[in-house]
């Protein structure tokens, strides 16, 4: 049976305090699996990014449990969470967050440096990853010399530097034209299906929905619909599986 890499149970999250309290997620149950592209969709403000941040251990939920490959995370301190994130997650943010003064290779090497990889090996690995994402001809380019799609590929290569089992991306196609967006999605699908990673994507972009193996629809902080469109699934299931 497939084992989930992340199990979120009964997650509720509230921002603010006393008069400004605002509950953005309510009683969310969700499992994340290897080999699949899971999309979190829903209207603006429905809680998608907050949920992604909680699933990726960037944010502690107000209530509920995150189980990461068999271990719960709620009692971990910031330092322990940072080390856990480095080991298990790669993040691709909409703004890419590349260092403008570093080349594509050096941007990827930053993560490898954090992992203690020696310079020579880090450079080789960075080159390998940049080739994997189709940027073998742009190894020494600076972010300002790259297109949006290329910057995003550097961000993906950097997210893969620690060889994380789980890749998370927030609106990865928002700044891309249709064709570049589709290429980015082909890359995410390859990383899920051929490299056996779990890929979780927050998106508003209906053009990329067909690339999802599973879609979870949020509204007002609740999951209102789940659909499974895995090729090997028995049937289309709505509103049941987590
Ligand atoms: N740090 C914060 N402090 C207070 N409120 C916040 C914070 N982060 C998010 N919110 C609020 O929580 C709600 C959910 O935000 P979130 O970014 O998770 O939604 P979203 O579905 O990703 O939205 P969008 O699609 O517009 O990015 C919003 O009403 C937002 O204003």
TrEMBL record:
GO terms for cellular component: membrane protein complex; plasma membrane. Belongs to the ABC transporter superfamily. Macrolide exporter (TC 3.A.1.122) family. The lineage of its organism: Bacteria, Pseudomonadati, Pseudomonadota, Alphaproteobacteria, Hyphomicrobiales. SMART domains: AAA. This is ABC transporter related. The keyword Nucleotide-binding applies. Residues 6-242 form the ABC transporter domain. GO terms for molecular function: ATP binding; ATP hydrolysis activity; transmembrane transporter activity. SUPFAM superfamilies: P-loop containing nucleoside triphosphate hydrolases (SSF52540).
């Amino acid at each position: 049976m497939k084992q989930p890499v992340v199990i979120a149970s009964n997650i509720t999250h509230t921002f603010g305090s006393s008069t400004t309290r605002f509950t953005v997620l309510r009683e969310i149950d969700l499992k994340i699996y290897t080999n699949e592209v899971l999309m979190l969709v829903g209207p603006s403000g429905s809680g998608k990014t907050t949920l992604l941040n909680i699933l990726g251990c960037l944010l502690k939920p107000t209530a509920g449990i995150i189980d990461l490959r068999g271990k719960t995370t709620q009692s971990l301190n910031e330092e322990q969470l940072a080390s856990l994130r480095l080991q298990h997650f790669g993040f691709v943010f909409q703004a890419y967050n590349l260092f403008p003064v570093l080349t594509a290779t050096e941007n990827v090497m930053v993560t490898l440096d954090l992992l203690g990889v020696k310079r020579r090996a880090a450079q080789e690995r960075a080159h390998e990853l940049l080739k994997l994402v189709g940027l073998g001809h742009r190894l020494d380019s600076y972010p300002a010399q790259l297109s949006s799609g290329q910057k995003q590929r550097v961000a993906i290569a950097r997210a893969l530097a620690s060889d994380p089992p789980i890749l998370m991306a927030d609106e990865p196609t928002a700044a891309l034209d249709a064709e570049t967006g589709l290429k980015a999605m082909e890359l995410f699908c390859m990383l899920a299906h051929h490299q056996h990673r779990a890929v979780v994507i927050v998106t508003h972009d209906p053009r990329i929905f067909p690339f999802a193996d599973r879609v979870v629809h949020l509204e007002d902080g609740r999951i209102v619909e789940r659909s499974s469109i895995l090729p090997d699934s028995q049937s289309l299931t709505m509103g049941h599986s987590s």
